[in-house]
Design a protein that fits this description.
With 217 residues, the protein is of the alpha+beta class. The chain is 36% helix and 22% strand. Strands 1, 2, 3, 4, 5, 6, 7 and 8 form an 8-stranded antiparallel beta sheet that branches.
Length: 217
């Protein structure tokens, strides 16, 4: 009995299956390589002008001051470290390739990346008054879309932290001894543009703080 040749259709199906498998493997390999490159290099820092960020944070703290609605506020001119600053000591290189560097006692800072923070305080605010004002601010700001991330008040402590609407900016109120009430705002680390004006120390130049505007001048 003469053996019949295999149909050409079977060969075509085999080639098609092999082709699809090969294409799938190539695609999967490409995606895997892209994923590993992202993990290895890390997500790039966002780009933001420090001066614009400082102005935004200044407005955040002004909103907090307005919401506190304290009856007789006085700016603490001697508050240590008060003012607006941009510095990069907490902004470290990202990605798996820097894993061991960031484990060191003094992890490196990412060049041209800073976080901006604004900080000032009021004096002559007893804790009981500060707690009442903070609760007033919490309610008012929550109605405006701010989210409370921490709220603690005891007979000796007061801490209120919030994030501003549609932002990762952190704003806080903290009571300190001697009837001082700190208000601060912090923006996440960002890379500043190459044309950013720098001061004599090589740090981004920032505008002078305005908030709380009714007490500054």
């Amino acid at each position: 009995m003469t053996q019949q040749p295999r149909p050409a259709r079977r060969k075509t199906t085999t080639y098609l299956v092999v082709g699809l498998v090969t294409a799938g493997l190539v695609t999967a390999t490409a995606y895997a390589a892209q994923w590993f490159e992202g993990v290895w290099n890390g997500r790039p820092y966002p780009v933001a002008a420090p001066a614009s960020t400082a102005q935004r944070l200044d407005a955040r703290t002004q909103a907090v001051y307005d919401a506190l609605a304290l009856p007789h506020p006085v700016l603490d001119e001697n508050w240590p470290g008060g003012g607006v600053e941009a510095e990069g000591s907490s902004c470290h290189p990202v990605g798996l390739r820097h894993f061991f560097d960031n484990l060191s006692d003094t992890p490196p800072s990412e060049p041209h990346v800073v976080d901006v923070h604004d900080d000032w305080a009021l004096k002559g605010v007893p804790l009981a008054e500060a707690v009442t004002a903070a609760e007033r601010a919490r309610v008012a700001l929550a109605h405006q879309g701010w989210k409370v991330t921490e709220y603690e008040h005891t007979s000796s402590d007061l801490v209120l932290r919030l994030t501003a609407p549609d932002s990762s900016d952190t704003v806080g109120i903290v009571a300190y001894p001697q009837d001082r009430l700190q208000v601060f705002a912090v923006a996440a680390c960002s890379r500043y543009p190459a044309d950013t004006p720098l001061d004599t120390a090589g740090d981004p130049r920032l505008p002078a703080p305005q908030a709380p505007s009714t007490l500054r001048y």
